[in-house]
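Technical annex, item 7. During the second reporting period the consortium partners agreed on a shared format for inverse folding records so that results from different sites could be compared directly. Each record opens with the tokenized structure and is followed by the designed sequence. A conforming record, contributed by the partner at site C, is shown below for reference.
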């Protein structure tokens, strides 16, 4: 089975994983976090024997684009309308703006990569509704970039803590260079250090590619 629906992975990952194993089934979900950007397949195929100790990423194209537009002097409403016209934002962009989409993606990553058992309800979120042009531009004036940063890390007690925060990243940070609909993720590993993957222009075509890639993976591993 192949899905790009975040819900099953975010809410019922372990139950579905165990059910698939019992029934001799396989399922793939690469497109749930960042369109066709390799995340889960990167971990499974290229980071074998690595432990994911944490992650940090920019995973919502709508909020990333809105913050960039504010920094360029455009209004919040105009930025949202532009994202909707381009097909990046939904007709009701509330899930993006208020962090719900990000919380689902963080839960997907924590569950599938780190063996966590969390849901989006366990992820503190942040809304960008009240972010002003002045705040974004002040960060830029200090050689920093205001971003909605998705994070997950394993605590000393073994539990995985996840969050979404408005964060000012220095301009030299890999994630601060992601503009508009670009998405990126840094995996913090034990053996390979930090591994960075990015998608510079996430559109419907890239989501479709994720489905194709998953189908090819299932076919090749029959």
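Designed sequence (site C submission):
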């Amino acid at each position: 089975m192949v899905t790009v629906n975040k819900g099953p992975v975010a809410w019922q990952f372990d139950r579905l994983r165990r059910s698939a194993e019992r029934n001799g089934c396989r399922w793939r979900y690469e497109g749930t976090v960042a369109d066709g950007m390799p995340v889960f397949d990167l971990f499974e195929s290229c980071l074998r024997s690595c432990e994911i100790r944490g992650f940090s990423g920019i995973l919502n194209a709508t909020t990333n684009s809105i913050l960039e537009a504010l920094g360029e002097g455009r209004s919040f409403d105009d930025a949202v309308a532009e994202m909707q016209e381009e097909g990046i934002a939904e007709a009701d962009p509330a899930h993006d703006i208020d962090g719900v989409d990000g919380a689902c993606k963080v839960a997907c990553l924590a569950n599938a990569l780190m063996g966590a058992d969390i849901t989006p309800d366990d992820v503190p979120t942040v809304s960008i509704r009240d972010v002003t042009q002045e705040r974004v531009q002040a960060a830029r004036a200090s050689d920093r970039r205001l971003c909605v940063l998705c994070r997950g890390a394993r605590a000393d007690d073994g539990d995985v803590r996840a969050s979404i925060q408005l964060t000012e990243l220095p301009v030299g940070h890999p994630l601060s260079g992601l503009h508009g609909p670009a998405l990126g993720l840094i995996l913090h590993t034990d053996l390979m250090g930090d591994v960075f993957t990015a998608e510079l222009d996430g559109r419907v075509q890239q989501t479709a590619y994720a489905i194709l890639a998953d189908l090819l993976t299932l076919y090749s591993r029959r």
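The chain has a mean pLDDT of 93. The radius of gyration is 17 Å. All partners now use this format for quarterly exchanges.
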